[in-house]
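Support case: user asked for a sample of complex input and structure output to validate their parser. Sending the pair below.
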Amino acid sequence: MDFVKKYIVQVGLIGISVLVYMSSEELSDSARAFPRTMAVSLLVLVVLLMISNYMKQKKNTGENSAKSDNPGSSLNVKTMTILVGFIIFNVLFVWLLPVIGFEIAGFLFILGGMIMLGGSEAKRFWWVALVLPVVLGVVFRTLLDLRLPLFPFLS
Amino acid sequence: MEIVTGFLNLLSPAVFLSMSTGVAWGIICGALPGLGATIGIALLIPFTFTMSPVVALPMLAGVYAGAIYGGGITAILLGVPGTSADAATVFDGHPMAQKGMARKALRTSVSSSAIGGMFAAVVLLLLAPPLARLSLAFGPHEYFLIAIFGLTVIAAVSPGSILKGLIAGALGLMLGTVGLDPIMGEMRFGFGYVELFDGLPLIPLLLGLFAFPQCLKFTEDLVTKGLSQININTDNIDTSTLTLSDIWGMRRTLTRSAVIGTIIGIIPGAGAAIAGFVSYAAEKRAAKDPTKLGTGVPEGVAASEAANNGVCSGSLVPLLTLSIPGSPTAAVILGALMIHGMVPGPELFTKYAEPTYTFLAAGFFCNIVMLVMGWYGSNIFGKIANIPTIILAPSMLVICFTGAYAVRQQFFDLGLMILIGVVAWFLTRYGYPMASVLLGVILGPISESGFRRAMLISDGDYTTFFTRPLSLVLIALTFFSLYAGWKLTQRMEAFAADSLSKADELVKKGKEATA
């Protein structure tokens, strides 16, 4: 378990390289040569990194070196929970976008995001949630001639 | 003749407006710690999508120059550089502000930035066209090797570990194989999604690699460090000012720093932060009284600022001529050029001469716009740096979503951006540089078709890469950049270890004193 936590990225990258190598099986020889070369290169580089980290750790065996090699492992449960919640909030925005249109979804997203991050502090800046999506909508639709999802009753 | 057209294009209201908007946006992004030129450009690219490259590229040139200068505002007023490029500005800029010479420091900063930027832009204009012709001698072998060289350069300067930079590059090259195979037209790694037929869409990729992880970083900082807000009070800023004779008095510093910045910019990988420090060190050596530097003298600010803005145009020399971006920001500009259908190399100066020369001319003139904006408005930009993170993170995300969606009108792209963003945030936390991933994705198809064509020509003989003089030069350069990167990593590790031992000593002494 400790090994997985320490080398989580490296293990993931090895998984990706193996996946690419395996799923290129059905491709023609010519089409799979480059991705396979890259998958093998990635695998070799990751193994080299793991060896290098292991050697460094063995050499130093200090607390500091272990920390500097694994900066990502310092996230606590509370931070992780809020971050996961924030990411789910993003997914929810994407899901709601075609249903309620850009301006309303944008307003809810910014307001919700501010409340999530700043609590009652968000009250002071509610107008940002109102103004920004409207400005972006006008810029993209009118000035740049690009389409954004409209509220169903308006489309 | 095209140069004249390029300069004349800047007189068009649309081009001038876009360049000025770019400069203003750049200064804001530079002044906001955590953003900077790379994210500033990535956020702006979707807005330029429907514009003609003649209008769009000056905007990006403006952002690049503006952001490097903008970082100096917080460096001076707060002692916190907005971007790493402005780290050396803190040494004298902040003491000047503390001595009641904030306005003079800000004006020294903007005028030096403008002079450094203009000098480098002239060098770019003179060097890029003849150097681009050099790439006419490139065959498929060289196109493959130049991509590998570009990746090793970015990997070599990635903070932490060169191996992580190379891993990120290899990951990018693999992601670059998603979509139709460039030679046979066979679909690869599309997993049944028609949206991936043309490969990974560049705008969601750019936003996912750079802007989205930064929003998560803001969120993380808010949770771990609590609500924090930069507090710059620019209402009662002093009335000290900079005169023309002051600038004339610094002419040697400005010339030396502009030259240093431009040369360091041209060397792929060195970057604006290094230029600032090298130039500051050179100023210290050349100064009549070196002890004054660091106490709040304008020469210190000028040395750092002229050099870091000199890097902007300097770093575009290898990018526009050989497709080698020397910095993460240049890698994003490469992405922007690709989005507008422009591939770096000789074609830029023939087929796309008009937008290219307009871009180069904008690289010069945006410095004048920046000078005017910075001279009169640095206190306003300083105020913008006060924007709290609780507004910044969700607002930036909405801009990201808008940009990622608007170009292809596919909800798929939004999901893809979130996925790339989460993975990028995770990888960034572990020290993997995202600029290498982006470069891999961009250079992937070029290097693959070069590799496969070379293999076809040589009948599958790998030694073909060692039979051409130009290929051998590129291989030698690749190994050299790997060696240089390895040495750099070793020095950084030694520096970190030294700092840690010094910190330990201080803690020990503190404990002893308490006992």
